[in-house]
Amino acid sequence: MNSEKQPKLTANDQWVVLKRLLRYTTPHKGSIAIALILLTLTITGTIIGPLIIQRFIDNNLIPMNFPKQEVMVIAATYIGIQLFIVIVSYFQLIRFQDIALKIIQQMRIDVFSKVQGLGMTYFDQTPVGSIVSRVTNDTESIKDMFVSVIVTFLQAIFVLIGVYIALFSLDVKLTFISLLLLPLFLLIVSVYRHYSADFYQDIRERLSQLNAKIAESLSGMGMIQAFRQEERLELEFDDINEKHYRAGMRNIKFDGILLSPAIELLYTGAIIFTLGYFGFLSLETSVEVGVLYAFTTLLGRLFQPVQQVMQRLSIFQQALVSASRVFKLMDDTNMEPEQKVVQNIKVGEGKIEFRNVSFSYDGQTDILKNISFTANAGETVALVGHTGSGKSSIINLLMRFYEFERGEILVDGVSLKEYPPDELREKMGLVLQDPFMFYGDIASNIRLHNQEMPEEKVRGAAEFVSANEFIEKLPDKYSQRVTERGATFSSGQRQLIAFARTMATNPKILVLDEATANIDTETEIAIQASLEKMRKGRTTIAIAHRLSTIQDAELILVLHKGEIVERGTHQELLAQKGLYYMMYELQNSSAENAG
């Protein structure tokens, strides 16, 4: 199982992640330009307001000069600017939010598409909850960054530029002194960014572990309750939850020290210095009260976006950590096997040949060793053996779930790797011992949402495998609702629906992975009849759990520790009195004792 622990994000790593995130803004250049224009208008209105008040104080209030028309113009202008700011801010906010949501929408599509194309090895090693966490929680964190942080950063930059222009127009000397605030801002941001990345990475990892534990508990709830494991799972969940809480509290304490208090302290110092400066200046010359008001007000406007930026730095850091996790998934090279496609090649008769195939899941221990056999068109080859003997691995390679480098698998004399993926999926039908049912109805589970498949074909496939007998008795027949994983149907009913799903595409090759392993004896008789019809005229590779079900197979392969140790027909293998004979006798004696 893959560890969720990731290396620490350095400053360079964070910059690389940020640049990659910003590439998602490229398709929205026009909308961003409009949003920035609206933002500029909003900031301009915000800065002009205090300057109007300053003019009123110095030109009208202090000298007690109130020409009616002039005062009315000032009042109307100020009110008009405030209304303008409200209206433009609304459209600016909507525009930025729309861009952010479209970016995250595309990112989630990219991540989900990537997950669909990952190889089975990735899913073997990575907890389901961890993958879900990256597709949902991590992208949601990135959305928060685009929705609030980026807008706040841009607003802060525009405000800094606008405020300093206005300050220079009021007092050049004091403005130059106030520029010393900028390196102090940058110092606080740098310290926060350096330490907070570790905290947020820890939080995201703990949250991913929580999701993994929840997913494991929900998927195995029946087993948990059957073996009374509730208390153990609760303790394990509580332990992870406690670690998540501690990680969160460490971050909150750090934020509490460095964010708002630090900026408030700077702001207080700036106001004290400004008032002191004008106080000493008043001892030598007259000081315009309006200028003092405008300067202190604009300093407040300067600190407000900076404080918002600092408050959102936590979201920003969290988003960078989340983005690094998402991009790690998107950069994973463990993809499903690629086909070296030869155009126009089709599966014909369906003859299958394995030539000296060896395979290892981890690259160290061989699960299959020099596997060679031939399944002629229309024949049935059965695979038998104890657990771990390599039966499922042969099927996994035949279905191209895993890549193999040693040996060759041929279909109709052509390498399996040269067929188009769609051709293989259409001509090779797979039935598992625990068929997966999708949420929807029976018809959609048979056609697998292929809307081009007519209803007659769906019903024909169901009739072919005798699934129609129970489907027609249901209240809604083929429109009967299927809950998650088909929990409301029996094992036999789910299996028959899976048979119909497979036969709906009329495959040339049939792959059966212990299709009757979880079926009761009475249901097995009905399913065996369906299987015989399905196998007729098709090349069949079948993993057999019950040896009585494959006695008519043209070839039976007995596997042991990844090797074929016996091969032949049912009668030939019994005559050898080897491993197959022992397995057959054991099953017969078990059946007699049960009877």
From TrEMBL:
Residue intervals passing through the bilayer: 30-53, 73-93, 146-168, 174-192, 256-280
InterPro entries recorded: AAA+_ATPase, ABC1_TM_dom, ABC1_TM_sf, ABC_transporter-like_ATP-bd, ABC_transporter-like_CS, P-loop_NTPase, Type_1_exporter
Keywords: ATP-binding, Hydrolase, Membrane, Nucleotide-binding, Transmembrane, Transmembrane helix, Transport
The enzyme's E.C. designation: 3.6.3.-
Bilayer topology annotation: Multi-pass membrane protein
GO cellular-component term (any): plasma membrane
Organism: Sporosarcina pasteurii
ATP-binding is among the record's keywords: yes
Protein name according to UniProt: Probable multidrug resistance ABC transporter ATP-binding/permease protein YheH
Localisation per UniProt entry: Cell membrane
Stretches assigned to the ABC transporter domain: 352-586
Residue intervals of the ABC transmembrane type-1 domain: 33-318
GO molecular function, one term: ABC-type oligopeptide transporter activity
